[in-house]
Amino acid sequence: MTGAVIVYGAGGLGREVSQIVMAMPDARVLGYVDDGVPPGTERDGARVLGGGGRIY
User: Fold this and answer.
1) Domain segments of the chain: what residues?
2) How does pLDDT run across 30-47, given as a tens digit for each residue?
């Protein structure tokens, strides 16, 4: 996999997905989208970008 990923959900499962992506060569996590976590909050080296309304 090559590229950048935005993970939907900054809770337990989202953070597990993030760890899997970060373990892949040539892949990185740009950030998380989560309605329940304030934007700017950092989780595992990536920031929450905002809520689900940011996806369109």
Assistant:
1) 3-54
2) 999 999 999 999 998 999
